[in-house]
Amino acid sequence: MMSFNEIAGNALLFFLVFGMSATVDIHMLLLQLKNIKAILMGVFLQFAILPVLGFLVVKYGTLDRSAGISLLVVTSSPGGSYSNWWCSIFNADLALSVTMTAISTLLSVVLMPANLLIYSRYAFDHADDADVVDSLDFNSLFIALTVVISAIGLGLFASAKVHSYKFNIYANKLGNYAGISLVAFSALLSNTSGGGDQKIWNHEWQFYVGVMLPCLGGLLLSNVLTSCVSLNKPERVTLSVECCYQNVGIATSVALTMFQGEELATAMAVPLYYGLLEAVILGLYCIGAWKLGWTKAPKNINFFTMIGTSFEVLTTEHGDLIAIEVSLPKNQKDLKEKTKIGSDGDILHLKHSIDECDEDEEMDYDETKCGWKCLTAPILPSPTKPKEPSGLKLPEVPFESEEAPRVVTEQKGLHMYSLWEEREKSPRNRFRL
Predict the structure, then answer these.
(1) Which secondary-structure segment (H or E) carries 323?
(2) Which terminus of the chain faces fewer neighbouring Cβ atoms within 10 Å, N or C?
(3) pLDDT at 109
Protein backbone atom coordinates (compact mmCIF):
# COMPACT_ATOMS: atom_id res chain seq x y z
CA MET A 1 0.00 0.00 0.00
CA MET A 2 1.28 3.46 -0.92
CA SER A 3 2.27 5.80 1.90
CA PHE A 4 0.93 9.32 2.32
CA ASN A 5 4.20 10.77 1.05
CA GLU A 6 4.01 8.71 -2.14
CA ILE A 7 0.38 9.70 -2.75
CA ALA A 8 1.11 13.39 -2.14
CA GLY A 9 4.20 13.31 -4.35
CA ASN A 10 2.38 11.62 -7.21
CA ALA A 11 -0.57 14.03 -6.89
CA LEU A 12 1.75 17.05 -7.14
CA LEU A 13 3.54 15.38 -10.05
CA PHE A 14 0.22 14.89 -11.85
CA PHE A 15 -0.83 18.53 -11.44
CA LEU A 16 2.62 19.72 -12.55
CA VAL A 17 2.56 17.66 -15.76
CA PHE A 18 -1.14 18.34 -16.39
CA GLY A 19 -0.64 22.09 -16.03
CA MET A 20 2.39 22.19 -18.32
CA SER A 21 0.67 20.00 -20.94
CA ALA A 22 -2.56 22.04 -20.83
CA THR A 23 -0.47 25.18 -21.38
CA VAL A 24 0.63 23.95 -24.81
CA ASP A 25 -1.49 24.67 -27.85
CA ILE A 26 -2.33 21.30 -29.42
CA HIS A 27 -1.25 22.50 -32.88
CA MET A 28 2.17 23.51 -31.53
CA LEU A 29 2.60 20.05 -30.02
CA LEU A 30 1.64 18.37 -33.30
CA LEU A 31 4.28 20.49 -35.02
CA GLN A 32 6.89 19.35 -32.49
CA LEU A 33 5.94 15.71 -33.04
CA LYS A 34 6.99 16.25 -36.66
CA ASN A 35 10.25 17.87 -35.53
CA ILE A 36 12.17 14.62 -35.90
CA LYS A 37 15.57 16.31 -35.76
CA ALA A 38 14.92 17.89 -32.35
CA ILE A 39 13.33 14.73 -30.89
CA LEU A 40 16.19 12.46 -32.02
CA MET A 41 18.73 14.93 -30.68
CA GLY A 42 16.91 15.05 -27.34
CA VAL A 43 16.83 11.25 -27.04
CA PHE A 44 20.53 11.08 -27.98
CA LEU A 45 21.47 13.65 -25.34
CA GLN A 46 19.38 12.04 -22.58
CA PHE A 47 20.17 8.37 -23.17
CA ALA A 48 23.63 8.48 -24.75
CA ILE A 49 25.62 11.64 -23.95
CA LEU A 50 24.93 12.08 -20.23
CA PRO A 51 25.23 8.35 -19.32
CA VAL A 52 28.56 8.20 -21.18
CA LEU A 53 29.80 11.26 -19.30
CA GLY A 54 28.82 9.66 -16.00
CA PHE A 55 30.58 6.44 -16.99
CA LEU A 56 33.79 8.25 -17.93
CA VAL A 57 33.89 10.06 -14.57
CA VAL A 58 33.30 6.82 -12.65
CA LYS A 59 35.76 4.79 -14.74
CA TYR A 60 38.66 7.23 -14.80
CA GLY A 61 37.91 9.39 -11.74
CA THR A 62 38.58 8.76 -8.06
CA LEU A 63 35.02 8.16 -6.82
CA ASP A 64 34.56 5.11 -4.59
CA ARG A 65 32.18 2.29 -5.48
CA SER A 66 29.07 3.56 -3.68
CA ALA A 67 29.40 7.11 -5.05
CA GLY A 68 30.21 5.77 -8.53
CA ILE A 69 27.15 3.53 -8.68
CA SER A 70 24.97 6.36 -7.42
CA LEU A 71 26.36 8.72 -10.08
CA LEU A 72 25.71 6.15 -12.83
CA VAL A 73 22.08 5.91 -11.70
CA VAL A 74 21.75 9.72 -11.65
CA THR A 75 23.15 10.20 -15.15
CA SER A 76 20.96 7.38 -16.52
CA SER A 77 17.67 8.77 -15.11
CA PRO A 78 16.05 11.53 -17.25
CA GLY A 79 14.49 14.32 -15.21
CA GLY A 80 11.00 14.06 -16.69
CA SER A 81 8.47 16.64 -15.60
CA TYR A 82 10.73 18.93 -13.60
CA SER A 83 12.33 19.95 -16.89
CA ASN A 84 8.86 21.10 -18.07
CA TRP A 85 8.72 23.45 -15.11
CA TRP A 86 12.15 24.92 -15.86
CA CYS A 87 11.26 25.41 -19.53
CA SER A 88 7.98 27.05 -18.49
CA ILE A 89 9.28 29.61 -16.03
CA PHE A 90 12.26 30.56 -18.23
CA ASN A 91 10.20 30.55 -21.46
CA ALA A 92 12.09 27.97 -23.48
CA ASP A 93 10.16 25.76 -25.94
CA LEU A 94 7.57 24.19 -23.63
CA ALA A 95 5.85 22.25 -26.44
CA LEU A 96 9.13 20.46 -27.22
CA SER A 97 9.75 19.85 -23.50
CA VAL A 98 6.33 18.19 -23.03
CA THR A 99 6.92 16.09 -26.14
CA MET A 100 10.34 14.99 -24.86
CA THR A 101 8.88 14.18 -21.42
CA ALA A 102 6.34 11.79 -22.94
CA ILE A 103 8.93 10.11 -25.17
CA SER A 104 11.73 9.86 -22.59
CA THR A 105 9.34 8.54 -19.91
CA LEU A 106 8.35 5.67 -22.18
CA LEU A 107 11.90 4.97 -23.34
CA SER A 108 13.39 5.10 -19.82
CA VAL A 109 11.59 1.88 -18.85
CA VAL A 110 13.90 0.03 -21.25
CA LEU A 111 16.90 2.29 -21.85
CA MET A 112 17.64 3.22 -18.24
CA PRO A 113 18.15 -0.42 -17.06
CA ALA A 114 20.06 -1.14 -20.28
CA ASN A 115 22.45 1.77 -19.66
CA LEU A 116 22.98 0.68 -16.06
CA LEU A 117 23.71 -2.89 -17.12
CA ILE A 118 26.25 -1.79 -19.71
CA TYR A 119 28.08 0.91 -17.80
CA SER A 120 28.14 -0.73 -14.37
CA ARG A 121 29.55 -3.89 -16.01
CA TYR A 122 32.53 -2.01 -17.43
CA ALA A 123 33.01 0.45 -14.58
CA PHE A 124 33.05 -2.12 -11.75
CA ASP A 125 33.14 -5.84 -11.16
CA HIS A 126 30.69 -7.88 -13.21
CA ALA A 127 28.62 -8.66 -10.12
CA ASP A 128 27.67 -5.02 -9.64
CA ASP A 129 25.56 -4.67 -12.77
CA ALA A 130 22.93 -7.13 -11.56
CA ASP A 131 22.91 -5.51 -8.10
CA VAL A 132 22.18 -2.07 -9.55
CA VAL A 133 19.34 -3.22 -11.80
CA ASP A 134 17.84 -5.44 -9.08
CA SER A 135 17.83 -2.41 -6.77
CA LEU A 136 15.63 -0.41 -9.14
CA ASP A 137 12.09 -0.01 -7.87
CA PHE A 138 10.24 -0.92 -11.06
CA ASN A 139 6.91 -0.64 -9.29
CA SER A 140 7.58 3.05 -8.56
CA LEU A 141 8.85 3.55 -12.12
CA PHE A 142 5.64 2.17 -13.62
CA ILE A 143 3.51 4.26 -11.25
CA ALA A 144 5.42 7.39 -12.30
CA LEU A 145 5.03 6.34 -15.95
CA THR A 146 1.26 6.02 -15.52
CA VAL A 147 1.00 9.37 -13.73
CA VAL A 148 3.07 11.25 -16.32
CA ILE A 149 1.47 9.75 -19.44
CA SER A 150 -2.08 10.17 -18.09
CA ALA A 151 -1.36 13.77 -17.06
CA ILE A 152 0.10 14.60 -20.49
CA GLY A 153 -2.86 13.00 -22.29
CA LEU A 154 -5.48 14.73 -20.13
CA GLY A 155 -3.67 18.07 -20.30
CA LEU A 156 -3.45 18.04 -24.09
CA PHE A 157 -7.08 16.89 -24.37
CA ALA A 158 -8.19 19.74 -22.10
CA SER A 159 -6.16 22.27 -24.10
CA ALA A 160 -7.74 21.12 -27.37
CA LYS A 161 -11.26 20.78 -25.96
CA VAL A 162 -11.47 24.05 -24.04
CA HIS A 163 -9.84 25.95 -26.93
CA SER A 164 -9.05 29.02 -24.85
CA TYR A 165 -5.86 30.99 -24.33
CA LYS A 166 -7.24 32.09 -20.96
CA PHE A 167 -7.45 28.42 -19.95
CA ASN A 168 -3.84 27.91 -21.14
CA ILE A 169 -2.72 30.77 -18.87
CA TYR A 170 -4.56 29.35 -15.83
CA ALA A 171 -3.19 25.86 -16.56
CA ASN A 172 0.33 27.28 -16.67
CA LYS A 173 -0.16 28.88 -13.26
CA LEU A 174 -1.46 25.58 -11.87
CA GLY A 175 1.59 23.77 -13.20
CA ASN A 176 3.97 26.38 -11.80
CA TYR A 177 2.39 26.26 -8.34
CA ALA A 178 2.46 22.46 -8.38
CA GLY A 179 6.12 22.56 -9.43
CA ILE A 180 7.08 24.89 -6.59
CA SER A 181 5.14 22.71 -4.14
CA LEU A 182 6.81 19.55 -5.43
CA VAL A 183 10.28 21.07 -5.08
CA ALA A 184 9.50 22.13 -1.50
CA PHE A 185 7.95 18.72 -0.73
CA SER A 186 10.99 16.87 -2.12
CA ALA A 187 13.37 19.08 -0.12
CA LEU A 188 11.37 18.38 3.05
CA LEU A 189 11.50 14.63 2.45
CA SER A 190 15.24 14.69 1.77
CA ASN A 191 15.81 16.39 5.12
CA THR A 192 13.57 14.06 7.12
CA SER A 193 14.46 10.67 5.59
CA GLY A 194 17.54 8.60 4.89
CA GLY A 195 18.89 8.65 8.44
CA GLY A 196 19.94 12.30 8.38
CA ASP A 197 23.64 11.40 8.01
CA GLN A 198 24.32 12.01 4.34
CA LYS A 199 27.48 14.04 5.07
CA ILE A 200 27.11 16.01 1.87
CA TRP A 201 29.83 18.53 2.76
CA ASN A 202 32.37 16.10 4.27
CA HIS A 203 34.07 14.83 1.11
CA GLU A 204 37.30 15.49 -0.75
CA TRP A 205 37.31 18.00 -3.61
CA GLN A 206 37.49 15.15 -6.13
CA PHE A 207 33.97 14.09 -5.11
CA TYR A 208 32.46 17.50 -5.85
CA VAL A 209 34.32 17.92 -9.13
CA GLY A 210 33.44 14.39 -10.24
CA VAL A 211 29.72 14.81 -9.58
CA MET A 212 29.74 18.23 -11.25
CA LEU A 213 31.51 17.19 -14.48
CA PRO A 214 28.61 15.28 -16.12
CA CYS A 215 26.26 18.21 -15.59
CA LEU A 216 28.67 20.81 -16.95
CA GLY A 217 29.85 18.55 -19.79
CA GLY A 218 26.27 17.70 -20.77
CA LEU A 219 25.30 21.37 -20.81
CA LEU A 220 28.27 22.27 -23.02
CA LEU A 221 27.80 19.38 -25.45
CA SER A 222 24.05 19.86 -25.73
CA ASN A 223 24.50 23.49 -26.77
CA VAL A 224 27.23 22.60 -29.26
CA LEU A 225 25.34 19.68 -30.81
CA THR A 226 21.96 21.45 -31.01
CA SER A 227 23.68 24.42 -32.65
CA CYS A 228 25.40 22.13 -35.15
CA VAL A 229 22.05 20.74 -36.33
CA SER A 230 20.62 24.29 -36.57
CA LEU A 231 17.79 24.00 -34.05
CA ASN A 232 16.22 27.32 -33.16
CA LYS A 233 17.42 28.92 -29.95
CA PRO A 234 14.48 28.15 -27.63
CA GLU A 235 14.74 24.50 -28.73
CA ARG A 236 18.45 24.51 -27.87
CA VAL A 237 17.66 25.78 -24.37
CA THR A 238 14.94 23.16 -23.94
CA LEU A 239 17.15 20.23 -24.98
CA SER A 240 20.00 21.49 -22.79
CA VAL A 241 17.66 21.46 -19.79
CA GLU A 242 16.31 18.04 -20.79
CA CYS A 243 19.86 16.67 -21.05
CA CYS A 244 21.16 17.88 -17.69
CA TYR A 245 18.13 17.80 -15.40
CA GLN A 246 18.01 14.30 -13.90
CA ASN A 247 15.66 12.38 -11.62
CA VAL A 248 17.76 12.20 -8.46
CA GLY A 249 14.95 10.44 -6.58
CA ILE A 250 15.70 7.18 -8.42
CA ALA A 251 19.34 7.30 -7.31
CA THR A 252 18.24 7.97 -3.74
CA SER A 253 15.96 4.92 -3.84
CA VAL A 254 18.76 2.72 -5.22
CA ALA A 255 21.19 3.95 -2.55
CA LEU A 256 18.74 3.14 0.25
CA THR A 257 18.29 -0.37 -1.17
CA MET A 258 21.92 -1.24 -1.94
CA PHE A 259 24.05 0.31 0.82
CA GLN A 260 24.34 0.65 4.58
CA GLY A 261 26.39 2.63 7.04
CA GLU A 262 29.17 4.82 5.64
CA GLU A 263 28.58 3.62 2.07
CA LEU A 264 24.92 4.66 2.36
CA ALA A 265 25.91 8.15 3.51
CA THR A 266 28.31 8.54 0.57
CA ALA A 267 25.84 7.17 -1.98
CA MET A 268 23.05 9.43 -0.68
CA ALA A 269 25.31 12.49 -0.95
CA VAL A 270 25.59 12.08 -4.74
CA PRO A 271 21.92 12.71 -5.68
CA LEU A 272 21.59 15.40 -3.04
CA TYR A 273 24.65 17.27 -4.32
CA TYR A 274 23.73 16.74 -7.99
CA GLY A 275 20.23 18.06 -7.26
CA LEU A 276 21.69 21.26 -5.85
CA LEU A 277 24.12 21.55 -8.77
CA GLU A 278 21.53 21.12 -11.50
CA ALA A 279 19.28 23.73 -9.92
CA VAL A 280 22.06 26.31 -9.64
CA ILE A 281 23.80 25.58 -12.96
CA LEU A 282 20.61 25.37 -15.03
CA GLY A 283 19.17 28.42 -13.29
CA LEU A 284 22.23 30.48 -14.22
CA TYR A 285 22.24 28.99 -17.73
CA CYS A 286 18.57 29.84 -18.33
CA ILE A 287 19.07 33.42 -17.11
CA GLY A 288 22.08 33.75 -19.42
CA ALA A 289 20.11 32.28 -22.33
CA TRP A 290 17.30 34.77 -21.71
CA LYS A 291 19.74 37.70 -21.68
CA LEU A 292 21.29 36.46 -24.93
CA GLY A 293 17.86 36.34 -26.59
CA TRP A 294 17.71 32.53 -26.75
CA THR A 295 14.27 32.19 -25.13
CA LYS A 296 10.79 33.32 -26.14
CA ALA A 297 10.91 36.17 -23.61
CA PRO A 298 12.41 39.53 -24.68
CA LYS A 299 15.85 39.91 -23.16
CA ASN A 300 15.34 43.48 -21.88
CA ILE A 301 12.18 43.07 -19.80
CA ASN A 302 12.08 42.84 -16.02
CA PHE A 303 13.23 39.51 -14.56
CA PHE A 304 10.06 38.98 -12.54
CA THR A 305 7.94 39.84 -15.58
CA MET A 306 9.89 37.22 -17.53
CA ILE A 307 9.39 34.37 -15.06
CA GLY A 308 5.81 35.39 -14.31
CA THR A 309 4.64 35.56 -17.94
CA SER A 310 3.93 32.56 -20.15
CA PHE A 311 5.31 33.71 -23.50
CA GLU A 312 4.55 30.19 -24.77
CA VAL A 313 0.86 31.14 -24.68
CA LEU A 314 1.07 34.85 -25.51
CA THR A 315 3.36 34.47 -28.52
CA THR A 316 1.18 31.67 -29.89
CA GLU A 317 -1.89 33.84 -29.41
CA HIS A 318 -0.15 36.81 -31.00
CA GLY A 319 1.00 34.64 -33.90
CA ASP A 320 -2.60 33.73 -34.69
CA LEU A 321 -3.24 37.33 -35.72
CA ILE A 322 -2.68 38.47 -39.27
CA ALA A 323 0.93 39.22 -40.24
CA ILE A 324 1.53 41.92 -42.80
CA GLU A 325 4.83 42.96 -44.30
CA VAL A 326 5.00 46.33 -46.01
CA SER A 327 7.85 47.21 -48.37
CA LEU A 328 8.54 50.92 -48.74
CA PRO A 329 10.06 51.60 -52.19
CA LYS A 330 12.79 54.04 -53.04
CA ASN A 331 11.94 54.29 -56.74
CA GLN A 332 8.84 55.55 -58.50
CA LYS A 333 8.61 52.28 -60.45
CA ASP A 334 7.68 50.55 -57.20
CA LEU A 335 4.50 52.59 -56.78
CA LYS A 336 2.41 49.86 -58.35
CA GLU A 337 0.99 47.53 -55.77
CA LYS A 338 1.99 43.90 -55.71
CA THR A 339 0.49 41.30 -53.46
CA LYS A 340 1.46 37.84 -52.38
CA ILE A 341 -0.55 35.70 -49.98
CA GLY A 342 1.20 32.82 -48.26
CA SER A 343 0.00 29.22 -48.28
CA ASP A 344 -1.68 29.64 -44.91
CA GLY A 345 -3.52 32.74 -46.09
CA ASP A 346 -2.06 34.88 -43.32
CA ILE A 347 0.86 36.70 -44.99
CA LEU A 348 0.28 39.66 -47.28
CA HIS A 349 3.17 41.48 -48.96
CA LEU A 350 2.34 45.01 -50.15
CA LYS A 351 4.41 47.69 -51.86
CA HIS A 352 3.42 51.33 -51.39
CA SER A 353 4.94 54.72 -51.74
CA ILE A 354 6.00 56.22 -48.46
CA ASP A 355 5.20 59.69 -49.78
CA GLU A 356 1.60 59.27 -50.77
CA CYS A 357 -1.22 56.82 -51.41
CA ASP A 358 -2.71 56.51 -54.86
CA GLU A 359 -6.37 57.15 -54.15
CA ASP A 360 -7.35 56.63 -57.81
CA GLU A 361 -5.77 53.19 -58.12
CA GLU A 362 -8.31 50.39 -58.18
CA MET A 363 -8.04 48.37 -54.99
CA ASP A 364 -9.20 44.84 -54.25
CA TYR A 365 -8.99 45.29 -50.51
CA ASP A 366 -10.59 47.45 -47.86
CA GLU A 367 -8.44 50.50 -47.28
CA THR A 368 -7.49 51.39 -43.73
CA LYS A 369 -5.68 54.53 -42.64
CA CYS A 370 -3.02 54.11 -39.99
CA GLY A 371 -1.01 56.91 -38.43
CA TRP A 372 1.63 58.03 -40.88
CA LYS A 373 0.68 56.18 -44.12
CA CYS A 374 -2.02 54.21 -45.90
CA LEU A 375 -2.16 50.48 -45.34
CA THR A 376 -4.52 48.03 -47.01
CA ALA A 377 -5.32 44.58 -45.70
CA PRO A 378 -7.59 41.82 -46.92
CA ILE A 379 -10.46 40.54 -44.88
CA LEU A 380 -9.68 36.85 -44.65
CA PRO A 381 -12.16 34.32 -43.32
CA SER A 382 -11.02 32.37 -40.30
CA PRO A 383 -10.62 28.69 -41.22
CA THR A 384 -11.51 27.51 -37.71
CA LYS A 385 -13.30 28.85 -34.71
CA PRO A 386 -10.90 31.28 -33.01
CA LYS A 387 -9.70 30.49 -29.52
CA GLU A 388 -11.00 32.54 -26.63
CA PRO A 389 -8.43 35.33 -26.04
CA SER A 390 -6.45 35.39 -22.84
CA GLY A 391 -7.22 39.06 -22.23
CA LEU A 392 -3.51 39.68 -21.70
CA LYS A 393 -1.08 41.67 -23.81
CA LEU A 394 2.58 41.05 -24.44
CA PRO A 395 4.58 43.05 -21.85
CA GLU A 396 6.01 46.38 -22.92
CA VAL A 397 9.57 46.05 -24.16
CA PRO A 398 11.88 48.96 -23.22
CA PHE A 399 13.50 50.81 -26.10
CA GLU A 400 17.13 49.89 -26.69
CA SER A 401 17.76 52.83 -28.98
CA GLU A 402 16.08 56.16 -29.54
CA GLU A 403 16.71 55.74 -33.29
CA ALA A 404 14.20 52.89 -33.40
CA PRO A 405 11.14 53.90 -31.36
CA ARG A 406 8.17 51.59 -31.31
CA VAL A 407 5.01 52.74 -33.05
CA VAL A 408 1.85 51.31 -31.51
CA THR A 409 -1.60 51.82 -32.98
CA GLU A 410 -4.89 50.03 -32.51
CA GLN A 411 -7.18 49.26 -35.41
CA LYS A 412 -10.44 47.36 -34.99
CA GLY A 413 -9.25 45.69 -31.80
CA LEU A 414 -5.95 44.53 -33.30
CA HIS A 415 -2.56 45.62 -32.00
CA MET A 416 -0.01 46.79 -34.55
CA TYR A 417 3.71 46.99 -33.77
CA SER A 418 6.41 48.44 -35.99
CA LEU A 419 9.96 49.76 -35.84
CA TRP A 420 10.36 52.96 -37.85
CA GLU A 421 13.62 53.23 -39.77
CA GLU A 422 14.85 55.96 -42.03
CA ARG A 423 14.07 55.28 -45.66
CA GLU A 424 17.69 55.69 -46.73
CA LYS A 425 18.87 53.09 -44.22
CA SER A 426 16.24 50.42 -44.81
CA PRO A 427 13.39 50.48 -47.32
CA ARG A 428 11.46 47.83 -45.43
CA ASN A 429 9.11 48.15 -42.48
CA ARG A 430 7.40 45.26 -40.76
CA PHE A 431 3.99 45.31 -39.12
CA ARG A 432 2.47 42.59 -37.02
CA LEU A 433 -1.32 42.81 -36.89
Answers:
(1) strand 323-327
(2) N
(3) 83
